[in-house]
Amino acid sequence: MSRRRLSRRGRTILRVMFAVLLCVFLFSTWKVYTIQHAYRTGNDTYAEIAGKAKRETEDSGETIDFDELAAINPDVIGWLTLDGTVIDYPVVQGTDNAYYLEHLFNRDVNHMGSLFMDYRSDPYFRDYITPIYGHHTNSGAMFCTLENYKEQAFYDEHPQFLYRTPHGDYIFEAYAGTLMNAEEDFLKTGFADETAYRIYLETFREHSTFVSDTEFSEGDHAVMLLTCTADFENARYVLICRVVPVLQ
User: Fold this and answer.
1) Comparing 55-59, 178-182, 213-217, which segment has the lowest mean pLDDT?
2) DSSP assignment of 5-29, as one string?
3) Which of 12, 38, 85, 192 has the fewest other C-beta atoms within 10 Å?
4) 114-145 in b/e burial notation, b at 16+ Cβ within 10 A?
5) Domain positions in the chain
6) Which of the four pLDDT bands, split at 50, 70 and 90, describes residue 32?
7) What is residue 136's DSSP assignment?
8) Strand, coil or helix: what is 133?
9) Would you give the end-to-end CA distance of the chain in angstroms?
C-alpha cells in the first residue's frame, strides 16, 4: 500500500512539475515573440517615417522634410545619421526624459523608443553639453551602434555624425567614448567656467576606448550620446562629440 501511495504521490508531483515547466515555456515563448514583434514594428515604423521625410534634390543631395515630420510629431527637433550604420533616425525632445523611452516617433507605445534630447537642453546647442539618449536594443537598432566605438577601427571609419535640424545642420565629431556606471552622477551639462568644462571633457578622453583627432577650442560645445550596454549592471556607453555648425 505504501508503495502505491508513494507512486501516486510521485505521479502527482510530476504532473505539477510538468504543468509549471509548460507554463514557463509558454510564457518565455510569448515574451520572446512580443519583443521581436515590437522590434519589427519599430523598424517598420521608422522605415516608413524615413520614406516620408527624406527628399533628394539636385543641388544639395538628400534633405529632410521637417514639415512632414512635424505633422507626424511636433516634438521633432532633428535627424541624426551615422553613414554606413543603422543610426538614421529623427530626434525628439519631450517634456521629460521618460516618455520617449517607451514611445516611437509616431507616439505608438513600443519598447524600442525614440532618440531624444534631454528635455532641459537647448536644442540650439547653447549649453556646454547636450545629452541625447537612445536604447541599446537586441535587434541592433537605435543606439546599439555606439558600442562599436569600443574599437579604434570603428572610430577610424566613422569619425563623425551628421545632424540635420530645421534651423541648420551640424557635424558631431567624435571626441571620446567611455563606459560609465549610471549609478554614479557622471552627467553634467553646466559648468562654472570654461576651465571646469575642459577638465570635465578631459576626464572622458583619459578613459576613452578610442583615440580621436578631435580637439575642443574655446567656445566649442559638445553633445553626449548615451545608451545602455551589457558590460556590467547599469553600464552606459557615453560618446562625447564636438558640435560643429555646417555653414550653409
Assistant:
1) 55-59
2) HHHHHHHHHHHHHHHHHHHHHHHHH
3) 192
4) bbbbbeebeeebebbbbbbbbbbbebebbbbb
5) 52-245
6) very low
7) B
8) strand
9) 93
